[in-house]
Every structure is written in C-alpha cells, then in structure tokens.
Amino acid sequence: MKLNVLKAWYAAVMAFFMFSERMWFLRAIDKMHIKHYILIITIFLSIIILNGRKIKQIKEFFPIFISTGILYIISLYFQLKEGRFKLYSLEEVYYLIIPLVFIIIVYNSTQRNYMDDYINMFFAICIVCLIISFIRSGKLNVANFLLLFNFNTLFIESESPIMESDLSNFFTLFYLYYFYKKDKIRRIIALFFCFLAYKRFAFLYVLVAAVILRLVQRHKKTPKSLMYITMAGFIIAPFITYYICDDTFASWFYQKTGLDFNEFTQTRFEIINAVIDQHLINYGLGTVSAFLERRGVGGQYNMHNDILRIYMETTIVGTVSLTYSFFTVCKNNIYQYIIMLFIFCELYVNHYLGTGSVAFWFVAYLMLVQLNVSQDEYNQRLAKRTEDEIKSQLKPIVKESN
Q: Which residue from 67, 238, 262, 354 has the highest number of Cβ atoms inside 10 Å of its Cβ?
C-alpha cells in the first residue's frame, strides 16, 4: 500500500502521546509539553488542509462540546465571584476536548478504514509498553505468573505479584471493541494482557462482558430506559461517595469484612477525606487537583474519583451536564454504551479527566467514532434492503394492473 504521509504523521503523534504518558524514560520530554505543541499545530494545519470541507462527526459529539462549555462557564462564575482567575480551569477544558477535536480531525482528514489501523497501532503499543514495564520491574517470572491466580491476592488485596498497570483499562476497551469487530484473536490477546496488567475492576468488567456480549446484538440501539437509569446512577454517585467516606461506614466495613477500608480502596478513602475536610466546594475546574499537588503527599496528586471531583468543583449542574453529554453520544449503538459505562465506572475510582490521560481518550474516541460510522452504514444497508423488498413486492401488483 502506498505510504500516506498524513496517516503516518497522525499515527506518529498518537504514538508519541502513548509512549510519553506510559514510559518512564520519556518523562523528561513529557514534562516539556512538546507533544501538546505538536498536537495543536497538527490540528491547526489539518483544518487548513480540510479547506472548508464539511466536518463529519461534530453533530454526533456536539453534546460533549456543550457540556465542556457549561463546566467552564460555571468555573468562570465562581472565579469572578472570588475575584481570582485560575489558569488551571482552562487547562482542564483543554484536556476535556482536545482528544475529541483531534480524533474528529483525523477521521475527516484520512480514509475511513484508517481508523481501525490507528486502533490496532494503539493495541500493539500497549502490549509493548506493558512488556517493557514488566521487564523493568524484574518480577516477570513463572512463579509470579502463577501467583496471579491467587483469588485473595487479586480480588481482596488487589495486588499483582508482577506489576499492576492501568494499561489494563486500555485492554478492556480493546476487548470490547474487538468483540464488536468479531476479531477473536485480538480479543483473546486483549483478555490475556488485561489479566496480566491486573486492575481489579477492569478484569472483572471483561469477565462479565465476555458473558453479556454474547447475548447482545451488534447493531442494537441503546435502550433509552437503560441509558437514563445509568445517568441517574452516576448523577447521585457523589452523594453516595460522601456517605461511604464517613468514618462510620469505614468502621462498619471493617466489622463485616475484617478489611481496612482505606487499604481496600488503595488510599482513595484517605485522599477523598483530605479533600472533603478542606471544603473545596464550588471553586471551578481544577481546584481539587491543584490542592492535592500543593499538599504534596506522594502518590496522592489526584483524587482518583473524577465523578466526585466534577461535582465538588462545578456543583450538581456540572455533574448532570457531564454525565448527560457523554452518555447521549452513545445512544446509537449498545456497544458504545458498554464502552462508556466502563469509562464512567473508571472515572468513579480513577483520574482520567486531566493530564496524562490524552492517549486513553484517543483510543476511546477512535472506537466511538468507528462505532458511529459502522452503525450508520448498517442503517443505510437496512434501509436499502427494506426499499428493495418493497419494490419487489410492488412489481407483481404493477404488472397485474397493467
């Protein structure tokens, strides 16, 4: 196949983000923010190359742009009220929308079949990054591999004897996508590496999905009732978190299970309570992360709960706006919903709305765009088939009338 320079450049930019966010030897370059300058220049030049052409997929993802605007308006209101403008709120807006903007540009600038090539490239890079990390840890051996099957270690203590990696979340996305694509080989590989990179929830989600997805039609639209129930669940999630993070609940949890709740949640309980105690409510996007960075406790530079963080920073309005917009863009296909459900579950226990997560959203949006396009093509084929059937049924009637 003839080398497509633009395709190669987009692939290089995405690969640069993936490697720099995951490989320790590139951290010095990562801190210089070179990749972001390259990304912005690439987007700007790509828009020029498009030369006024109609940009597809904007309408489908427009709710996310609207929601981001609402979050920033709320943030700006609080900052004006306090008389202090905070640049970190703009940084949060950048991280919220720049991955989506780039993927839409990529889709409109290259051939449609290239999107799968980019996804497959990310899949290969994730495998390489994980293997390199395992080799560097010095714990990749047969004995530790067998310890992975220790139920208590994995599901109670949630500690991998080799090395825990958030690449497990990437492999969960790949598993779901390759299930949709009926790519059995890559799906099995994704399952294996998801297990190897062990993150408790990610692996459990894959196991459940492996059963559920066999009962799900590939081109089924997301039921509205299911979508609204899910949105309601994540909208009330911050209030549930406040209840769980009370010392009374931690004591009850210990009495029932014998486990320290803070250790069980891998210090998330401690981090969230530290933020709650500071009463960081209604100060706009980025407030919580800025506080934790100033606090300077090792391994606790973000709250590991973006759902609660958005609520604390932008009120219930921000929570509703964010939740509604992200699930609305997944209404066309049930697989989009399943992917977004996993992402929001991760947002409840991790930090993926901010720095260091651009590559994750590249992968997610590549998949969501491809599922949109695939669903549209299926709908067109279905409409064409229905039209042909109607014409074939009308032919005898027309002949008889003649």
A: 67
Query: How many other CB atoms sit within 10 Å of the CB of residue 49?
Result: 11
Ordered alpha helix ranges (H), 152-299: 167-180, 184-196, 200-212, 224-244, 247-257, 261-264, 268-277, 287-295
Distance CA 146, CA 84 (A): 55
Residue 94: DSSP 8-state: H
Q: Is 182 left (phi over 0), alpha (psi -120 to 50) or beta?
A: left
Check if the beta carbon of residue 25 is closer than 8 Å to that of residue 132.
Answer: no
Model confidence at 1, in pLDDT bands (50, 70, 90)? very low
What CA–CA distances, in Å, run from 386 to 56, 71, 381, 389? 26, 44, 9, 5
Q: How many CA atoms lie within 13 A of 242 on its CB side?
A: 13
Structure tokens at 88: 């970190």
